[in-house]
Design a protein that fits this description.
Blueprint (H helix, E strand, L loop, with lengths): L40 H17 L8 H10 L12 H12 L4 H25 L4 H12 L2 H7 L4 H22 L5 H12 L4 H14 L11 H23 L3 H13 L2 H12 L4 H12 L11 H17 L10 H15 L2 H16 L2 H4 L5 H5 L2 H5 L9 H15 L3 E4 L2 H10 L5 E3 L3 H4 L11 E4 L8 E2 L2 E5 L14 E5 L1 E2 L3 H8 L5
Parallel strand pairs: 1-2, 1-3
Antiparallel strand pairs: 3-6, 4-7, 5-6
Helix pairs in contact: 1-4, 1-5, 2-3, 2-21, 4-5, 4-6, 4-7, 4-15, 5-15, 5-16, 7-8, 8-10, 9-14, 13-15, 20-21
């Protein structure tokens, strides 16, 4: 009956799909003699180990990213949700902070492990698609050396966690569809549910995968499987606490999504989206991805991989038209790389495949100085590399920011600090300051308002204009950094005010703001 579970090799290896381009439900796809190829454990682990070692070696470079500072602060105030994100990445930041308080290396080590995990998942996906040793290794090499995985591997962010969870989700879907093993859908549901506790974008990936399954004749029977519905129920159950938090707080992530769409939905940003999409890993990898994406329509043995390609195409269109960012797709790309690598292995001798891997790695390595903190902060921050990848600039200069604010607090006798954004507030908490720190930005808004006693001067950090809710303000300093990096903090004023124009409880609604 439709949706009944089948063992992976319940039919003879090499049985052909049914006429008409779709595989007969319940019939395994053509595979190599012996079924699914063995995993090339040694080579794959070696490849995954290279970026892991590099990232760990560079883990102490520059400083914490502004988002990391916020995640640590959120992790110290654990909840089922925040105005701008679910709880998983703050939880990971909390674990790092508890194991090694204030350690930048520990924070970045979590990100490095997540990035290495993506490489392993990519190789496993290539194996599931019928790829042998050469295909698994070239897939791992392409992902391991790609620019975006390395950028995200040097900072703990929701995008870093999402990259691994989306890659794992897609890889499991490939396994379920290729082996026609619906009993695995609940496991897919577990990964999906955990992913939704990190980023709501996983819901869009799930919808796109459902579209792909529904439009592929050889896979649409899964939509009638009770196991698939069980998987959906598992995912929803895991996501439910965060959904409840969002509902109780007026769905702030919807408002934030609208803000992001307005900011990044311009024609210029859409052009940048396309440009970054083409170099998500590297230009050479994009060629491999493009070719791999066509193979399920040319190779009958890959019919059941079509849903993944359909899902990727649907997401590209969706993000291109709604203000999404190119890196939202980085978790889907490893499966497309795997499709291309399996095709190379089938067409070329092993020596030529190895040469292709070298070329792919060499082309990707050109971007490493921009993707990783290899250069001195001053050289990176004042070069064109900072314009190419701005994330490194948001890791530079925080000690100077905190030192400036600390000096102003000491000179003024201020009783608290209010910052314009969560990065500044997070930095003051991370490096330490002797007075309470507050902000109205995103999650910090819920952690206020400050108490109204004791009364005294207040230091405002980063407000480009004196806010109407403050009184008696004078600018006394300007934020800067020794490296000369033109980041978000450089040039912002530091002011001393006599206090709020009313009680903090009264003015706090005007202090609060929700923005990316």
């Amino acid at each position: 009956m439709p949706g009944a579970d089948r063992e992976p090799h319940s039919a003879p290896v090499g049985e052909r799909p049914a006429p008409g381009g779709g595989a007969r439900p319940g019939t395994p796809l053509p595979a190599r003699p012996g079924g699914v190829p063995p995993l090339a454990v040694g080579p794959v682990l070696a490849v995954a180990g290279v970026p892991l070692v590099v990232l760990l070696a560079l883990a102490g470079r520059y400083g914490p990213h502004r988002d990391e500072l916020y995640f640590v602060a959120a992790g110290r105030r654990l909840a089922w949700g925040y105005p701008d994100q679910p709880p998983l990445t703050p939880l990971l930041a909390r674990v790092a902070d508890v194991l090694a308080p204030g350690s930048l290396v520990a924070l970045h080590a979590v990100a490095a492990l997540l990035a290495a995990g993506v490489v392993l998942v990519a190789a496993l996906t290539a194996r599931e698609l019928g790829g042998g040793r050469a295909a698994q290794v070239i897939t791992a090499v392409t992902v391991a050396t790609g620019a975006t995985p390395l950028v995200l591997g040097h900072m703990l962010s929701t995008a870093t966690t999402d990259m691994l969870l989306q890659a794992l989700l897609v890889g499991l879907v490939v396994r379920v569809l290729r082996r026609d093993a619906p009993r695995l859908w609940p496991l897919v549901g577990v990964v999906a549910g955990v992913g939704l506790l990190n980023k709501h974008l996983v819901a869009l990936l799930l919808a796109a995968l459902v579209l792909g399954v529904a439009t592929t004749r050889g896979t649409r029977h899964h939509l009638r499987s009770p196991w698939a519905w069980a998987g959906a129920a598992v995912a929803l159950a895991l996501w439910a606490p965060n959904l409840a938090w969002q509902a109780a707080h007026g769905w702030p992530q919807r408002a934030l999504a609208a803000d992001i769409q307005e900011e990044f939905g311009t024609a210029g940003e859409r052009g940048l989206f396309v440009a970054l999409l083409l170099v998500l890993l590297s230009p050479a990898a994009t060629v491999l991805v493009g070719w791999g994406a066509t193979r399920p329509w040319r190779d009958p043995g890959l019919v059941r991989a079509r849903p993944v390609v359909v899902a990727a195409a649907a997401l590209v269109v969706l993000y291109a038209t709604t203000g999404g960012k190119a890196y939202y797709l980085v978790g889907v790309v490893p499966a497309l790389v795997a499709l291309g690598a399996v095709g190379l292995e089938a067409r070329w001798p092993a020596r030529r495949v190895r040469r292709a891997g070298v070329v792919l790695a060499a082309v990707a390595a050109v971007a490493w100085p921009a993707a990783l903190p290899l250069l001195p902060a001053g050289v990176y921050g004042t070069s064109v590399l900072h314009d190419v990848v701005e994330e490194g600039g948001q890791m530079i200069g925080w000690p100077e920011v905190v030192a400036t604010v600390r000096e102003v607090v000491d000179d003024s006798g201020a009783v608290l600090v209010v910052t314009a954004n969560y990065g500044e507030a997070g930095a003051l908490e991370w490096y330490g300051i002797d007075v309470p720190v507050h902000s109205g930005h995103n999650g910090y808004a819920a952690w206020g308002p400050p108490p109204d006693a004791p009364a005294g001067p207040v230091v405002l950090v980063g407000f480009r204009e004196v806010p109407a809710w403050a009184r008696g303000c004078r600018t006394v300093a300007t934020l800067d950094n020794a490296a000369g990096v033109d980041n978000e903090e450089r040039g912002r004023p530091v002011a001393v005010c006599s206090g709020p124009a009313g009680t903090w409880a009264e003015v706090w609604p005007r202090v609060r703001r929700l923005a990316a």
